[in-house]
Specification:
Distance between the termini of chain B: 55 Å
CATH architecture of chain B: Up-down Bundle
Largest sheet of chain A: none
Shape of chain A: flat
CATH class of chain B: Mainly Alpha
CATH topology of chain B: Four Helix Bundle (Hemerythrin (Met), subunit A)
Structural class of chain A: mainly alpha
Shape of chain B: elongated
Radius of gyration of chain A: 20 Å
Strand content of chain B: under 5%
Mean pLDDT of chain B: 94
Oligomer: heterodimer
CATH superfamily of chain B: Cytochrome c oxidase, subunit III, four-helix bundle
Distance between the termini of chain A: 56 Å
Number of helices of chain B: 6
Number of domains of chain A: 2
Low-confidence stretches of chain A: 98-105, 107-111
Number of helices of chain A: 3
Number of strands of chain B: 0
Strand content of chain A: under 5%
Chain lengths: ~110, ~200
């Protein structure tokens, strides 16, 4: 009966407080010019917030292993989707930041 | 009963995985266009209402807390608390949608809806910024649609809870709809920094 363990109210309130503080943090960090690290900081904070919601609010910490496997698979598939998409765009020099071959084709607009 | 509960939980996660892929496609489009036009995307932050975006993030996080507490109230058989928490979650949901509606109206007044009447102060970026506003409306619009559906589901829970359908022995629908509500919250957790704060350091 692992999934029926009742989580204490103070745990939920602590998660809520952490999520609210992280929201303020993500805003404050965005105001500082960190160059490419702005997006890395924003995504990192968002992932921490997501993990808090998934593990505690969504009870994945107490869920059985099959459910956990599903949750893990979901994020793996999303990473595959975004990863392969970016491999394509970055390796063809279509993006300003992705010129792996200096002599590669110029930026192609409209195919 | 325990097995039924686990199966329902698993089934809901299977549905949420399809939702991850559904929103994932839009996040993919965002990633590609943002890397293509970083300057234009950063310039749009000036036209976003960051204060309201922040407020909405906090409202949604609060609604996730009350949703989690609703599930907990069902687990400990506290019927009064269960109803109060569902009502509070609904309330926060409507506050979010109200603020979102106000922001959409602002965008409409400022001619920031993509299309023939789109107007942008930085002429060089006008076309490229339109892509961000298109993504903004597509992503927040789909998110808002999910909120409306969530509000409908919460209303269903509220009616059922008044009929006394839930107890510590049976609260599967509360748990399942809770999962959905938290998922919608997670989508917003990513949307807020990606849409509202891209170029915040330029306008600080």
């Amino acid at each position: 009966m692992t999934s029926h363990q009742v989580v204490p109210i103070k745990v939920y309130v602590a998660v809520w407080a952490a999520l609210s503080i992280l929201t303020m943090t993500t805003w404050q960090v965005a105001l500082i010019d960190l160059g490419p690290f702005n997006i890395i900081a924003a995504i990192t904070i968002a992932i921490i917030k997501m993990l808090l919601v998934v593990t505690i609010f969504m009870h994945v910490r107490q869920a059985d292993s099959l459910t956990r496997l599903y949750v893990g698979a979901g994020f793996l598939w999303l990473i595959i989707l975004l990863g392969i998409l970016l491999c394509d765009y970055l390796s063809r020099s279509w993006l300003p930041g992705g010129q792996f071959w200096p002599s590669g084709p110029a930026m192609i607009v409209g195919g | 009963m325990e097995q039924q509960f686990s199966s329902a939980q698993l089934g809901m996660w299977a549905f949420l995985l399809t939702e991850i892929m559904f929103f994932g496609g839009m996040f993919g489009a965002y990633t590609v266009y943002r890397s293509m036009y970083p300057g234009a995307f950063q310039s749009t932050t000036h036209y976003m209402n960051v204060t309201l975006g922040m407020a909405n993030t906090l409202v949604l996080i609060a609604s996730s807390l009350t949703m989690a507490l609703a599930v907990r109230s069902a687990q400990v058989d506290n019927q009064k608390m269960l109803r109060l928490m569902i009502v509070l979650t609904l309330f926060f949901g409507f506050v979010f949608l109200g603020i979102k509606g106000y922001e959409y109206h602002e965008k409409w007044v400022e001619h920031l809806i993509p299309g023939p009447h789109f107007e942008y102060n930085v002429p060089n970026y006008a076309h490229q910024a339109q892509i961000l506003f298109f993504l903004y409306f597509a992503m927040t619009g789909t998110h808002a649609l999910h909120m409306v559906i969530g509000a409908g589901l919460l209303t269903y829970l509220l009616i059922k809870s008044y009929k006394g359908n839930f107890s510590s022995h049976y609260y599967t629908p509360v748990e399942i709809i809770g999962l959905y509500w938290h998922f919608v919250d997670i989508v917003w957790i990513f949307l807020f920094p990606l849409l509202y704060l891209i170029g915040a350091h330029l306008h600080a």
